[in-house]
Amino acid sequence: MTSHQTTQSMKPATAAKKLGVYLEATPAEFREGVVTRAELNALQTDPPAWLEELRRTGPHPRPVVAAKLGVSIAGLARGGVTEPLTTEQIEALKQDSPEWLRKERATQAEVRKEGARIKQRNAERATRPDDRRS
Predict the structure, then answer these.
(1) Cβ contact 48:21 at 8 Å
(2) Are 81 and 56 spatial neighbours (Cβ–Cβ below 8 Å)?
């Protein structure tokens, strides 16, 4: 019995998400076709000029905008940011530092701090002998 290697492919939206770019800003040939796993790997290891430019200047999808601003995606929505932003727009927001952005960054910092505390607590519990088993 011979095994057949099937070519794994994905929709352009999935590939754009994996590449961290906004689908609507990609070239038409990318949006209208399918992307194989091999093509995705090639785009990741040796990005073409259009991909490098998109990653550098945007427009960026919400997860990338949120990460660059140091807030959650929900925090973006609470701040009224629902559209993709360019790198320039993100930098302008950082410079202006509106109240909502300061508040969301503080919230995100608290979430990270709490996550670290829980991780530490769980690690301590895992290494501590269980006194109840005696």
Answers:
(1) no
(2) no
Question: What are the beta bridge partners of residue 36?
Answer: 9
Beta carbons within 10 angstroms of residue 102's beta carbon:
10
- As a whole number of Å, the end-to-end CA separation of the chain is 56
DSSP 99-123: HHHHHHHHHHHHHHHHHHHHHHHHH
132: tokens are 């109840």
Which single residue is written with the structure tokens 């996550």? 115
Kindly report, residue by residue over 62-99, the tens digit of the pLDDT: 999 999 999 999 999 999 999 999 999 999 999 999 99
H/E run at residue 9 = strand 9-10
| CA–CA dist 92, 21 (Å, integer) | 20
Distance between CA atoms of 34 and 123, rounded to whole angstroms?
44
| Residues 6+ positions from 54 with CB-CB distance below 8 Å | 21, 22, 25, 26
pTM confidence score: 0.76
